[in-house]
Amino acid sequence: SIPLGYFGGIGLASKNGILFKGSNFLDVMTKIDTIVMDKTGTLTKGVFNVQKVVTGSFDKQELIRLTAGLESKSTHPIALAISQYAGNQTEGLKIENVEEVAGMGLKGKVEGKTVLAGNAGLLKKYNITYDPVAEQEEDTIVMVAVEGQYAGYFTIADEIKEDAGATIKALHELDIKTVMLSGDKQSVVDRVAKLLGMDQAFGGLLPEGKVEKVEGLKAKERRIAFVGDGVNDAPVVALADAGIAMGGLGSDATIETADIVIQNDQPMKIVTAIKIGKLTRSVVW
Ligand code: ADP
Ligand code: MG
């Protein structure tokens, strides 16, 4: 028979906005020694704001219009920031063939012009040389190329969630190592990880790069929970001993693959999930 304690644990978790997809994961959570987390939308609010737009000879207003046109087809937090910044300037634009380049950005046609918007990796992928000044920016950058030519960049900033620092501290008190994996550039990743006091942080990762890092940790016999929110996080969520989706901004694919779903945006719920697991265990045994 199934011990009553597990039903109690699942019920208690659900009252706390944590959905366990099986009672075994209550137990798995008590054995986790490493928590691997995505940055954007998990540790940070995922609500970006454009700080500035930098162009050379390319017309700034035109750059904003074309980029926002392209980004209007995406729901990525960065895309929302640029769309909001442009306001109604994209009304009536002809936008076609927009595709996501995983972990890098977007490609598509706006007003008949081929537009690329994303990180340095995206421009490198298309062999487009860009102004190296862009890479010295501290914030997240979105570089833009129009018709195969570098046209300028946006700087974008996100805010760390209120309870992110306390969460990392609480995890360390439970003797759990904390690792951040992100597609964002290393300088941004380092800044956030340092502020939060995390043990390790890796940036510039494509979805398969995140998978490799988690595979590397598994090969070292680490018991891993991965916490993520984005479409690109589904493969690592599946690979971890416990895959956790943050529900607030989470993508359907990630929520479907996850073993545990946190229904709001608070990272502290990870600590709650572990504590409920431990409590349940003490009742069951
Ligand atoms: P994270 O791991 O930080 O959640 P993602 O995997 O979602 O990041 O994206 C990785 C990187 O790709 C982002 O930091 C950004 O530089 C770039 N990127 C992704 N989507 C877009 C977009 N719609 N517009 C511009 N850049 C994007
Ligand atoms: Mg993400």
UniProtKB/TrEMBL annotation:
Localization of this protein: Cell membrane; Membrane
Top-level taxonomic group: Bacteria
Family assignment from sequence similarity: Belongs to the cation transport ATPase (P-type) (TC 3.A.3) family. Type IB subfamily.
Name assigned to this protein: P-type Zn(2+) transporter
Segment of the intact protein contained: 329 to 613 of 664
